[in-house]
Amino acid sequence: MKTILILALVFMGFVAPVSASQVAGSVAVGLIPIQHGGRIKPFAAFAHELVQSITGKARWQGSPAVDVIMSRLARPEQFLDVPFIRIDHPGLKEALGILSEKKSVSYHELQPVFKTLESIVAQASVKRQKEERLSALEQQADILYERLATVDRLSRGEMITVMPVPGKTAWASPFTSNMVQSKYFLQLVKNYADKDPKIVTQVDLWIASVVPSLEKDGWEKVKMEGIYYAMEPFYYAGILYLIGFILLVFSGLRMPDAGCLALFIGFVFHTAGLLLRTYILSRPPVANMYETMIFMDWVLMICVGCYAIFQKRRSFLSSGALASVLVMLYANLLPVSSSLDVLSPVLRSSYWLMIHVMTIMASYSFFTLAMAISHRYLFLAATGKLTADEDKGSALAIYRILQAGLIALGAGTILGGVWANETWGRFWGWDPKETWAFITFLGYMAILHLRYSRKLTNWGLAVASLLGFLLVLMTWYGVNFVLGRGLHSYGAGSGGLEWIMLFLVLEAGFLGGMIYLRKRRG
Amino acid sequence: MKRLMHLLGSAAFTAVISTVLIGFFIISTSTEAMHGSVLSQEIFYNAWWFDLLVSLLWVNIFFSIVVRWPLCWRQTGFLITHVGILGILSGAFIIKYFVVDGQLMVAEGQRVDYFKRSGKMLARTDKKVPFCPLAVKGPVKLPAPILKVMDKEGKELLSYTLAVGDIPVKINIPQTAFEIDGLAFYPYAAVQGKGVLVNDPAGRMPNPAVSFDLIDSKGFAVHQFAFAFFPDFSAMHPSEEKGVSDLTFRLEAGKPEDYTASSAMPGGAADLARTDRSEELPFSLMLKDFRKIDYPGTMEAAAFESDVVLEDKKSGVMLEKTISMNHPLTYQGYKIFQMSYIDDGVHGKSSVFTVAKNPGIPVVYFSSFIACLGALWQFYGKRSEET
User: Fold this and answer.
1) Do residues B151 and B72 both lie within one domain?
2) Inside any domain, residue B128
3) Last residue of some domain: B266, B299, B323?
């Protein structure tokens, strides 16, 4: 198992292409169990989350996360001098007197302006208490403050909770504990920094001493999480979907089988990623924005697969693949955490919640697929390449998929009410998420009624499907990231609006272009 | 009549209502984003005209069925779906007007038999000293008090000279959502029996009092009274002589949840605040133990649990149960949910529960099931309708 893991880690580019012993050392250290964020995880996952939260990226200056953390742990106070704290907002940089061209700074560089930063954070805190909206600068100041706090804790070594303490649930850090194991781990850290070739053996011994303290399948989960981070399943799924799309569309359909194969392998990665997350967290992966995007994408690919297999419509595969690639891309562009986080009490042990979210996400998959097929339809119709069969088949597919989406959205929204009633005793409270789900429902209901009463042509249906998707976008992203209100706060966040605006602009451009082309053709 | 029914059941009417509703929701959610949920609930979702809009949608769906009557077999899916939606909307109204919900906070070892309703009412707050005594030497001359209501800036909204005894008029406080009812003036106020205020000049030093009910827009009333002197009874404080002056009642404008009022008296004021309504429960709840279970190595809660004892003296029922997130206690139609907790380190741990009795839920659940079933039938039962 371990050999497979090491091979996976090496071949998937998890570690930098350096010497074999260094790679092996890094891989071995990556598997050390550590208690972080309320659960036991591999050191690689801990390092990945930490480096991601501080630098905004999974690597820093080309070094893998494990190396970024581990190579400096021998003298943890040096983290205060590492210029890896990301700062993006120009206004915040100006307020703190940081040069606009600087993308990241060190803790010590920021120390002289702590008071200024603290006053902005305090102001944001007051606003939050008053339920007022925070400005972008205040939001970014909050994030920066959190990054500083993380670096501060890291520099004291107290986050490195790798030692189980007999009789206690909380693990201890060798930097703050007098336990006998502390010395051994600190030596291990030193040997890593010195690139000692015996590091793998030392780590093996360390892991062997810790594993008995883990829960029944704890070690299995740690290893699986190591594989998950090494595999980067969703990254490769996205790449393969893109390859599949290119092969299906730009090779003049001479390589459709190769395109399908790429999509299939991508889907295997996608499924594996979801299964790994489910196994590691012991829950369906639908509890935060990132997970819902990935899950939605997965259902979408099942839908296009079903269309290709049962309806013999391979033509939708390319539309579905492109939509999936874009969703994967947006899952990385938007400021959403891909970490494997534990849940708040209200989200735990509620099957209604899981059914509710999964049904809603299924509805979003349908609407996304309908939107993707509509793009294809509009393009073919505007450029005069639409055959009669394509015309009828695509319109019928859009209509049917929207119907499925509407039923799923209606059922999912009601299931959300059931969950709320079972959890809080309140079925409906006009929370913004609920309200926008209702707006989306009304919007798609109007589209289907117009189509049913023959007031929408095939072209009109495709345009309406595009416009309807904007409601989905608002309900899904807008409520949490733009309105930033309501009870669905576990999906809350801020930022990324520029990417959504880009999508809207491109969408408007596409629609305008297609209408123009259609008119020109008469 | 037939034309009106066709109009009410038409797709065009659906389009108009849907558009208005969508516009309404966009404004309400934007307002909520800017000013918080309390305000948007108050001015949008609790407004009568919102109910009217939803009622119009109900009427529209209802007549869309009526004008197609008698329906053929092919339209069964349509009928089931739309009857289901009518049921959901009806259930929503039942929930809105008949739901009993609120919060119950109980400390470890304590027993509570009431909860705070979600609605607000006006009530005296005890946080500030209500009245301050003001001693005036010499004989007391009693002028007729004037009831005054001022806005936040001190501008007079209402001035009403009080006559002795009950004043059988309702007085609207201009520019506010409040009115005064049951106004009474007692130049020689005395309390008899169980706190009944009467006019009793015999053998007492005059201590004028005014009593009234302050009623807010929801009809929630709070009985308010104010004595000119405090302590108010000469029998208790025979040696004290006190002065009198106008009774002034001040109501501050602001956000709905911020309404406060004070009844200014010589030397002091009684504060009124819009506060939670309390309601008795047909049982009592005792908190034996509260536990917050953290994720290992963090202060982050993984679960809240409360061991409670429910006692219904009338029926002699005593239940012991652990309430946790997603695992409520159900008794006599009431559901008690674990919400949060308070642990201030001084007063010990208290558990916060939501109490709800919701008669509309079965209607909504059943109707939702019907509507989904109908939609499936309608969409996939007959393929000829597809284009």
Assistant:
1) no
2) no
3) B266
What three-state secondary structure class fits B306? strand
**Structural domain total, chain B:** 3
Same domain, B89 and B47: yes
Pair B289, B350 in one domain: yes
Query: What domain range is B284 assigned to?
Result: 100-119+279-357
- Structure ipTM: 0.77
B283 and B247 co-located in one domain:
no
Q: Does B48 map to a domain?
A: yes
Nearest-neighbour CA in chain A from B22: distance (Å): 6
Q: Are residues B212 and B173 in the same domain?
A: yes
Gap between the Cα atoms of B383 and A83, Å rounded:
64
Element (H, E) at B64: helix B48-66
The 3-class secondary structure across A206-266, one letter per residue, is HHHHHHHHCCCCHHHHHHHHHHHHHHCHHHHHHHHHHHHHHHHHCCCCCCHHHHHHHHHHH
- What is the per-residue pLDDT for B208? 63
pLDDT over 70 (residue B52): yes
pLDDT band at residue B240 under the 50/70/90 scheme: very low
- Does B225 score more than 80 pLDDT? no
Whether residues B115 and B173 share a domain: the answer is no
Query: Do B354 and A426 make contact, defined as CB atoms within 8 angstroms?
Result: yes
Helix H, strand E, coil C: the string for A97-128 is CCCCCCCEECHHHHHHHHHHHHHHHHHHHHHH
- Looking at the fold, whether B351 and B372 belong to one and the same domain comes out as no
Residues of chain A with Cβ-Cβ distance to B301 below 8 Å are 344-345
pLDDT in tens, A434-453: 999 999 999 999 899 888 88
Report residue A208 CA to chain centroid gap: 33
The first and second tokens of residue A62, run together, are: 């080309």
Six token digits for residue A456: 């929408």
* A128 inside 8 A of chain B by CB: no
Residue B25 lies in a domain: yes
Considering only CB atoms, B303 lies closest to which of A348, A403, A438, namely: A348
B309, part of any domain: yes
Mean pLDDT computed over every residue of chain A:
87
Examine the domain organization and report whether B254 and B166 are in the same domain. Answer: yes
Contact A422 B304 (CB under 8 A): no
Contact B25 A392 (CB under 8 A): no
State whether A442 and B18 contact (CB < 8 Å).
Answer: yes
Contacts of A452 in chain B (CB under 8 A): 385
Q: What is the pLDDT of residues B192-210, one digit of tens each?
A: 655 566 666 664 555 666 6
- For A378-420, the DSSP string reads HHHHHTT---HHHHHHHHHHHHHHHHHHHHHHHHHHHHHHHHH
